[in-house]
Amino acid sequence: GKVDPLIGLKENVLIGKLIPAGTGMKRYRSVKLNTDAEPEEEIALEDDDEILLSGDDDMAEEAPEVFDIDDSEE
Question: Is 46 contained in some domain?
Answer without folding.
Answer: no
